[in-house]
Amino acid sequence: MDPRPLFLMTDPSCFDVCYQINPWMRPTAWSPAALAAAQSASGELRATLQTAGARVETIEAVRGLPDLVFPANAAIVLDGKVLLARFRHPERQGEEAVFRSVFARLKARGLVDEVVDLPDGVLQEGAGDGIWDAGRELFWVGFGPRSTKSSVAAIRRTFGREVVALELASDRFYHLDTCFCPLSGGEVLYYADAFTPQAQATIRERVPQALRIEATAGEAEAFCVNAVNLDDRLIMARAPASLRAKLTAHGYRLTEVDLAPFILSGGAAYCMTLRLDRTSQPHSAILAAE
After folding, report:
1. Hey, which residues are catalytic here?
2. Does this model's pTM top 0.90?
3. Domain 6-289 is of which CATH architecture?
């Protein structure tokens, strides 16, 4: 079995910003030049992942589904089990059938093992609102703007793992992955004001102060919390110097990609990828098994 991390990405050739379902989306700023920049940025992100030692599966674009470029919202994947998303907004609901077909193909190739549907009436927008924390062996689950609170129990039942619920307080940070990123060293990079007071208290209870890296408003608005973490490497949108200093002080190496065209739609590096090979087995146990 290939031990390299495996990510899903989408061909960006049909990406545009033609509607608004979050405050970041700016259809009037879209242009043919923005599409060309998006194609270049997606290619750079893919190449960066590959240089970092990852494999990338790229799925086809579908005209009329511009946000298909954000496969993090397609599903939660752990231990080969795929929990398919159900989207709140009609503009994205057409993605559900596409991703169902994609995961069926991946299953046929042995890249995932099982595909599971959410219970009726539950809205849950994939790894955007269901983030696996390997060090703590639990899911952080966001709810509010997009995913319903009922998704918390659905994720717990599906995967049989501990789930910590965090209510999001703002449509500007509509998915958990826009404002919360658990890191390989046990730290959590997050933007506190994106959460309700109760959710902020939960984070403080669960994460010691020394491991909490708080992003400023400017750092969060640059979509740098929406990052991909591979060991000590963080792949993210262009970062303010202040955030670069914080992360470097914790021993992380940053690789920055100009993802401005995707930020026009409210997404960045984490949104543009879906990790397919996450496992609940601790890394030490994996090494022992090998």
Report:
1. 175, 271
2. yes
3. 5-stranded Propeller (3.75)
